[in-house]
Design a protein that fits this description.
The structure is a single chain. The chain is 42% helix and 16% strand. It is an alpha/beta fold. It has one domain: Alpha/Beta hydrolase fold, catalytic domain (Rossmann fold), CATH 3.40.50. This is Candidate non-heme chloroperoxidase (Chloride peroxidase). It holds the Pfam family Abhydrolase_1. One of its GO terms (molecular function) is peroxidase activity. InterPro entries: AB_hydrolase, AB_hydrolase_1, AB_hydrolase_fold, Epox_hydrolase-like.
Length: 274
């Protein structure tokens, strides 16, 4: 199985899948999932002539479970290790939700020498946390509540989290298989990683990182996202990234990579070919 070794204080192994030929597209998953969330996108992109590389963030999926390193500087260093060891050139970085933070921090810290384009998909930048200089953000109590819920009963918390991820109402018979699949992925993650990533995506400021974007950037967001509302993320990111464009998926929830897969795939392919 393809794996690479990172370095640093909390070195670990990262698992990744590498399929297809052509321009590389690096897919970075959201919390609390793994590379498995990209099933539809990997199929569509590889069939269209692209090379898809999707890796599991440290602590998730089949990657290692270190006792630390769950911060965006380390996540960006992990992505840099992948880009460097695979010697990717002219790559497209596509980050979903929390994964959009990796794209932002990677460009902010490591530049775009290996990057041709970027995609932020339902992504958390520029800054989710409400603060004096970020009044549009989300109150800290929301993230504190998530962290407390995961610490107290991770399995129970996830059972209540995913219906809102996909905008499924209680008792809704639709999407039950998708809920089961998502919980199965999330259950396998490190409890510590699941906790600490809430701290990371809930409190990291990417505004300076977005100023360093100098490649074509496409932002895709669901206009019915209950988890990462477009008003505090996608719309503001578009305003901060020079020359970027915002594509809204009408009626789409946060988890649109699954619920609106064909629409997302079409937008990704159109951007890749542009």
């Amino acid at each position: 199985m393809p794996r690479l070794q990172t370095t640093g204080p909390h070195a670990t192994e990262l698992y990744y899948v590498d399929q297809g030929q052509g321009q590389p597209v690096v897919l970075i998953h959201g919390w609390p999932l793994s590379h498995r969330m990209w099933e539809s996108q990997i199929t569509a992109l590889t069939e269209a002539g692209y090379r898809c590389i999707a890796y599991d963030r440290r602590g998730f999926g089949e990657s290692g479970r270190p006792v630390g390193g769950y911060d965006y500087d380390t996540f960006a260093a992990d992505l840099d290790a992948l880009m460097t060891q695979l010697d990717l050139q002219g790559a497209v970085l596509a980050g979903f939700s929390m994964g959009g933070g990796e794209v932002a921090r990677y460009i902010g810290r490591h530049g775009t020498r290996r990057v041709a384009k970027a995609m932020l998909l339902g992504a958390v930048p520029p800054y989710l946390l409400k603060a004096a200089d970020n009044p549009q953000g989300v109150d800290r109590s929301v993230f504190d509540g998530m962290l407390a819920g995961v610490k107290q009963d991770r399995i129970g918390f996830l059972a209540g989290f995913f219906p809102g991820f996909y905008n499924l109402e209680p008792g809704d018979a639709r999407g039950q298989d998708l809920l089961a699949f998502s919980k199965w992925i999330a259950w396998a993650a490190s409890p510590l990683a699941t906790q600490q990533c809430i701290v990371a995506f809930g409190g990291t400021d990417f505004r300076d990182d977005l100023k360093k974007f100098d490649v074509p950037t496409c932002i895709v967001h669901g206009d019915s996202d209950r988890i990462v509302p477009v008003e505090v993320s996608g719309q503001r990111a578009q305003q901060m990234i020079r020359g970027s464009r915002l594509e809204l998926l009408r009626g789409a929830p946060h988890g649109f990579a699954a619920t609106h897969a064909q629409e997302l795939n079409a937008k990704m392919l159109a951007f890749l070919k542009s």
